[in-house]
Amino acid sequence: GEALEVNREVNCVIDFIHGCEDQLQKLKKQKEKGLLYGIPISIKDHINCKGHISSAGMVKFLGQVKEEDSVIVQVLKHQGGIPFVKTNIPQTMINYDCSNLIFGQTLNPLNHQKSPGGSSGGEGALISGGGSILGIGSDVAGSIRLPSSFCGLCGLKPTGNRISSPPACSDRTFVLAVTGMLGPMARDVDSLALCMKALLCQEMFQLDPTVPPIPFDEEVRLRGNPMSPSAQQQS
């Protein structure tokens, strides 16, 4: 309901993921509750969800319905999360705004005269507007960090190859020197940490053997604020 409201205001959702109710019923029957049990999670357009398109904001991809969930979606579900919407992006995603000719312009919920940033702009707008509490964006050169900044959120671009990334569009004729990464977006750092902890699990390492099987290290995160004056002096 909240997502619908926010979408009416700022045009950030491109599709609602079907089967959410079924998944919730399935989760209730499981003995083990995952770290993300029952949490609705928004997903950036280009991340594959079974039965849905990954448009990249381009007409040529509109007929290509994906036959299976990407690894990250499988792991989110394994941890009890419920992917429930797909969110808007700029055409081709290499942009710091958020509009395309199929789904139109996404607005910043804090100021409708402004952009939510890009390319994970639909995520930024939806979470900032209160329509989602956790989302998955992606970032090569700022595509999580910019919308997080523009929309007053927290976001993380993990280290390259830390978690499974979707394969690049097969017809892309260039190779990026900087590794593109999927990562979480939310209202606070604790939510990002919980999401990373949930993603870095045995399921992820089994589904994608190219991901180093290194679990999330809570101690590293809790060593204090690296930007504090004492930490700067030590470094």
Automatic annotation (TrEMBL):
InterPro entries: Amidase_CS, Amidase_dom, AS_sf, Endocannabinoid_amidase. Residues 5-213 form the Amidase domain. This is VDHAP protein. Belongs to the amidase family. Pfam families: Amidase. One of its GO terms (biological process) is fatty acid catabolic process. It comes from the Eukaryota. The keyword Transmembrane helix does not apply. It comes from Menura novaehollandiae (superb lyrebird). The keyword Repeat does not apply.
